[in-house]
Write a structure and sequence with these properties.
By secondary structure, this protein is of the alpha+beta class. It is built from five helices and five strands; from the N terminus they run αβββββαααα. Strand 2 and strand 3 form a beta hairpin. This is E2 ubiquitin-conjugating enzyme.
Length: 228
Amino acid sequence: MASAIATKRLTRELKSLLKNPLQSPKITAQPNESNILEWYYVLEGDSDPTSPYHGGIYFGKLLFPKEYPYKPPGVLMLTPNGRFKPNRRLCLSMSDFHPESWNPMWSISTILTGLYSFMVEKTPTTGSVETSDDTKRKLAKESLDWNVREKIFCNLFPEYVEMWKEREEARKRMEAEALARGEVVEKKKAVANNSEGGMLGEGQAVVWQFVGGIVVAIMSILFAIRFI
């Protein structure tokens, strides 16, 4: 159970985040409705298209001790991302791995901004992994699909669920349009083949008519010579 000080501090920080949300990078955070010591966040990947995290939507968790803000929280990232092991406590200067370096003046905004800064680096630490940029890009592309399978994500961040629905609708429209274009191409090919077949048939008919005319003419000449 949270102490009165922790509850007061976390409530104040929630109000601050709602009033002044983090925009660069964009990070959203919400407490569990039944436990103010358990917070969840969504961190959007780098806006730079060349970044391996571009387009990623990363879902994670902060576990605050009842003594907060005098003790640091546990920091975890849940979405597979290629930088951190999913659902593992991370060794950061502002996490519970290093209580000696914790500053009670730091806030949730400080923690999450620091997490983002460490994420885009390549410094190894407890809880980190090494993967290729291609793997990170693949996971970034799949991140929102993974998140919407988590009930707590859908409950706390419905705006991202709507984003996923819009993406799915756009994807289905593109697939339908591609299928329609494919059908049109096939129909055009069929029409072209039929036209070629028709032209070939007409050509053959003309040839046979010409040959038939020659045969009739020759027979007429032979018949006439016979009676001379």
